[in-house]
Amino acid sequence: MPVSQHSDKTILTHPASGAGAEVYLFGATLTSWKVKGEERIFLSEKAVLDGSKAIRGGIPLVFPVFGKGKAPHVTASLPQHGFARISRWKLVNSHEDSNSVVAEFGLDHSMISEEHRAMWPFDFSLVYTVKLSAETIETQLRVHNIGNQAFDFNTLLHTYFLIPDATKVRVIGLSGVDYTDKVLQTTARQEGDAVIRGEVDSVYANLAATNIEIQFGDNRAAGGVQLHKNGLKDIVVWNPWAEKAAGMADFGNEEFHRMICVEAGQVAEFLALAAGDSWQGSQILSLL
Ligand SMILES: O=P(O)(O)OC[C@H]1O[C@H](O)[C@H](O)[C@@H](O)[C@@H]1O
């Protein structure tokens, strides 16, 4: 079966190509994308997969706040990155056509904990669609305001890429973009490709470009992944490096060498969604 449901996760298989993906219902977190015989998504060997905390790796979904909300904003008491990544979603639909296999996951206000509902009292519905094709995977989030009052939200497809060597990776497509460096607590303009030489936590705001490349070395021959984004203005680049990694219980001490997060979303500013309105954003990953 191209889409099979197990107790805790959904497995998508693209029969003609052998490509595959796995999505945990907890957080609708995609934890694996295999294409051309290789895993492309980083999942920590220490990731907790029992639903007791956010999954360390894959594509956690950030909603409705990025990082920790700040008073007096209504998101101030929510956990870091919101509740979507720590709520149990359900598989609402699956289908296939000649090119792709699709699974759709849903989360709405009736499915989140009482505690989170009290912290963020809006009526919403999220639909997350994962579309696996022979050489690409598309992940799309739709946000529906089904209540009678407007709400603000951030969202982010917090993608952890599995890479051969963090010191060699280049993130292409950010040159000339202003960013907030959360490590140095400064703002700057990116000149040239973004590279990793230590802890990186940068929020690039309002990119005109829609294609970002995660190139594994100095040229395309080194391989890599293209991230094509749609309706998502901002990009976050993150690598915790040694010291932060050592302080994270669910991240192996040496794992920072083989991962980079390049995260497409709406985080520099909140988006406002009027009662009855919907919004959508997506990314398509493909190999370079
Ligand atoms: O540890 P988490 O809550 O999963 O957050 C992991 C990281 O997510 C984003 O990339 C943020 O920019 C970082 O500041 C944060 O450390």
UniProtKB/TrEMBL annotation:
Coiled-coil intervals, chain numbering: none
Gene Ontology MF annotations: carbohydrate binding; glucose-6-phosphate 1-epimerase activity
Transmembrane segments: none
One Gene Ontology biological process: carbohydrate metabolic process
UniProt key word Chaperone: no
GO cellular component: cytoplasm
CDD domains, per database record: D-hex-6-P-epi_like
Catalysis: reaction(s): alpha-D-glucose 6-phosphate = beta-D-glucose 6-phosphate
Highest taxon above the source species: Eukaryota
Binding site for substrate: R56, Q80, R85
Broad class of enzyme this protein falls into: isomerase
Alphabetical keyword list: Isomerase
Active-site residue list: H158, E263
PANTHER family attached to this UniProt entry: APOSPORY-ASSOCIATED PROTEIN C-RELATED, GLUCOSE-6-PHOSPHATE 1-EPIMERASE
Family label: Belongs to the glucose-6-phosphate 1-epimerase family.
Function, in words: Catalyzes the interconversion between the alpha and beta anomers from at least three hexose 6-phosphate sugars (Glc6P, Gal6P, and Man6P).
Record protein name field: Glucose-6-phosphate 1-epimerase
Organism: Entomortierella parvispora
